[in-house]
Amino acid sequence: MDGRGRDFIEYIPRLRRYARALAGERSRADDLVQDTLERALVKFHLWQPGSDLRAWLFTIMHNVFINQLRSQAAGLTVGLDDEALPMAVRPTQSDWLEVRDLQASLLQLPDEQREVLLLVGLEQMTYEETAGVLGIPIGTVMSRLSRARERLRALLANGGAAPAGLKVVK
Fold first, then answer.
1. What is the DSSP letter of 118?
2. 151-156 LR contacts (CB < 8 Å, sep 24+)
3. Nearest to residue 116, comparing CAs of 40, 18, 36, 27?
4. Helix, strand, coil: what percent of the chain each, to 5?
5. Shortest CA distance to 42 belongs to which of 34, 50, 32?
6. Going along the chain, which residue ranges are E strands?
7. Quick check: helix, strand or coil at residue 124?
8. Between helices 138-157 and 127-134, what is the axis angle to 10°?
9. Which residues, at least 6 apart from 154, have a Cβ–Cβ distance to it below 8 Å?
10. Is 3 helix (H, G, I), strand (E, B) or coil?
11. Helix (H, G, I), strand (E, B) or coil at 52
């Protein structure tokens, strides 16, 4: 294995975690990671030595994810093996339910809000790094993050149901 392959290996767990949060299911997340790594290997000559390889890989993943969303057919695909695999360590029932509710609520967020929330909150990227990965201004990162956190709080408070809008009372 050459040097760049070894460099990529250390980031695979983080890429998988982010892909799982973006895609929502194991099979799509694995495909996203594979597509990301494949594109990174093919385009490795474009990476600038001395720059942040992690941010470069996350930028590629973001672009691959957006391209997949755009070209996605109307129907959703479901991996056959997702429910057949047992969990490595079975958590308590309430922990599992909380994680399930969090994942369901995350998937209800708009893609642009979910991406920012995951990069800042889960991957602990700075606002500047997140802005670079997504190709948006820092102010946009901050406003999307604020909206994502607020909406996630509301979704979790309502048990995963979308918060009701305000009514005009006369």
1. I
2. 151/109, 151/113, 152/105, 152/106, 152/109, 152/117, 155/105, 155/108, 155/109, 156/101, 156/102, 156/105
3. 18
4. 65, 0, 35
5. 34
6. none
7. coil
8. 100
9. 163
10. helix
11. coil
| Single-letter amino acid code for the residue at 41 | L
pLDDT, one tens digit per residue, over 23-63 is 878 888 899 999 999 998 888 888 888 888 888 898 899 88
% the chain with pLDDT above 70: 74
Structure tokens at 133: 């990965």
CA distance 26 to 81: 9
Query: What is the SS3 assignment for 158?
Result: coil
pLDDT band, very low/low/confident/very high, at 102 (cuts 50, 70, 90): confident
Predicted confidence band of residue 160 (pLDDT cuts 50, 70, 90)? low
CA–CA dist 133, 125 (Å, integer): 10
- d(C-alpha 54, C-alpha 39), whole Å: 14
Cα distance between residue 72 and residue 83, in whole Å: 23
Residue 2: exposure state from Cβ atoms within 10 A (0-12, 13-18, ≥19) = exposed
